[in-house]
Amino acid sequence: MVMVPEYSPDEVTRLQRKVAVYRRLKKEYREKEKELELLKEEFNNARREMEQLGLYPRVFEEKGKLSGICRCAVDISEYVRWGRQAERALWDQINFMQTLIDTIPSPIFYKDINGVYQGCNNAFCSLVGINREDIIGKTVHYLFPRELSAIYSEKDLLLLEKPGFQMYESRVKNAGGTYRDVIFYKATYIDTEGKAAGIVGVAIDITERKGMEEDLRLSEERFKKAFNASPAGIFIHRAMDRRIIDVNDSFILSSGYSREELIGRSIDDVDLWVNPEDNGRVYEYILKGGSVHNLEVRYYGKNGEIRTGLFSAEIIVIDGEECVLSLFFDTTENDRLKSELARLNRLSLVGEMAAGIGHEIRNPMTTVRGFLQMLGGKEGFVNYREYFDVMISELDRANSIITEFLGMAGNKQANLKSRNINDIIGKITPLILADANNLEMSLKIATGNIPDILLDEKELRQLIFNLVRNGFEAMSPGGELTVATFMDNGEVVLSVKDQGKGIPPETLDRIGTPFYTTKESGTGLGLATCHSIASRHRAKIEVVSSPGETIFYVRFKSAGETAATDDFRAG
């Protein structure tokens, strides 16, 4: 059962009339709306646009019928046409700009003030490995790992706080997990009110460049290590002004100069060449052929010592500038070793000769000397006794030469025992002092704290006597001879220094050669014997001479070094 409100008959009658009028008006209104739509269609067909400002229905009662509807319309066709043209132009501009940035090979992107990506080019998509549709509308926190997005976000905030330009180096991890090294160039863009509206950025991929830089760094590091580790002395100078730009450790060691004394100086200002014409000759070869190899040269060290070596040079280019890479392979020590080996070979040959014929010569000489002594004592030869004495003296001299010969015998075994050189010097000092007094010279003994080493006492006595005798013979009355011992670089050193006139440089290398002497009465065997004794003790003799002074150094290995050498040879 439906409940309805209670109305009076009059109210029901009036209500029914209103409903009927409403229904009629609604029907007429719809008919007028259709007329309005037709009118609008006529406007549109006329290529016109109108904007409906409002609907104000007015019912004009003519016999109780709706006579019309009043509406107001404004012709906006020109505005609509302009708007559509502007919209098309805007889309054309957007498409052009997208095509333009897609053509640029460098990755480009732009964001709004909230850090949300608004667009990017194809290169940026390739860099990060993500499609454009998946980038736009996202932030760095959604697209990149936390450690990288934190950097990007912090840099963006700094740029927005101080609008302008920003550049920094960082990395990008693409969707495939590969990292790329990049440099970001960013700037803010502004809106119509002049406020920062967002950020536009360009990423320059420097992965290959950094790889090449790293390869170059490693190459330079390898070159530097090889440069400084080379046993040959190397220096580099510019070809134009010949100024030295680098030297290696071996050249510093062999030349005696410091790096600071060489860098920046012209090679012509460094007094290297013993023969100045070698300088011009060498660089003439370089200019003609671009390089020289293994030229035998002599050059000065800083202390004036003449050194020998093999010189090579090559033109190279450093930072676009021609330079000359010069290499000295110092052969000074090698040449000395060769000379020493040749001298030892000569000594060995002489020793072998002495061992072979010494006894055979000595026996008849002893017989001759005995008969000369016997005949010299007879009455009939009294008047010739002086001649007999001369002959006996010469036989004794020949016998002493043979003794020295035998002292150089290479197969002679030294009786090595642990002894101290200072003790041996102490035993023979009275004999040396007596000779000094007879020659009106002074003797100075300066023994240091040295360890015991393996020595043949008899042979060491002979070595010291020979060196001392040479020193006395080199000096004039009043001179002083110094015998000293000390430690140097782990070696036990015996030195004998005289105050003679010195040994000429041109004869210094020949000292110790059998039968070579600078003395009128010398045999040339004293120093040769010293070298043989030193060789049997695995020692070496060095000579340093200058006007007014000559020093002989005998360098012995310590007992520990000698034992280590023996173990090495035995193994």
Automatic annotation (TrEMBL):
Coiled coil: 12-56
SMART domains: HATPase_c, HisKA, PAC, PAS
Occurrences of domain PAS (ranges): 93-162, 219-286
EC number: 2.7.13.3
InterPro entries: HATPase_C_sf (IPR036890), HATPase_dom (IPR003594), His_kinase_dom (IPR005467), HisK_dim/P_dom (IPR003661), HisK_dim/P_sf (IPR036097), PAC (IPR001610), PAS (IPR000014), PAS-assoc_C (IPR000700)
Histidine kinase domain ranges (all copies): 356-560
Reaction equation(s) it catalyzes: ATP + protein L-histidine = ADP + protein N-phospho-L-histidine
Protein name according to UniProt: histidine kinase
Organism annotation: Desulfocucumis palustris
